[in-house]
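Table S2 (continued). Query chain:
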Amino acid sequence: MKQGVGEIRVRYAETDQMGVVYYANYFVWFETGRTEYFRDLGMPYSEVEKNDILLPVLKAFCQYKSSARYDDLIRIVTTVASLQEVRMLFKYELFRETTGELLAIGETEHAFVNRQGRPVVLKKHNPFLWRRLQEAAGEYAE
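Corresponding output:
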């Protein structure tokens, strides 16, 4: 199973007065993880969109383990937990790079839709991307 790994440094604007990251920013970092995952597959998300495939979020979840703080370097590890013909599930782990401490785990589930918002069967709509995702997801592909 392929992992996408990205890094971000916590900016001051992402924190509250105590220097702790505002909870909603973790979902933005999940997006960063997904973007890097597709880039690592050799198909940046911008290319996915050019092929008339969009990935709206159906569900999102985050469990916070420890607070990220201003200027922390965060490692985002992204994997595909489930791949189906019309949807996929990403899992995320966020770590403080300096200590390896797990800060949060999360998931987002996405549908494959076209620009009109209609579901598409990825296997038929874009066989190349389907195969790449299957290979990356490994045993989790359904």
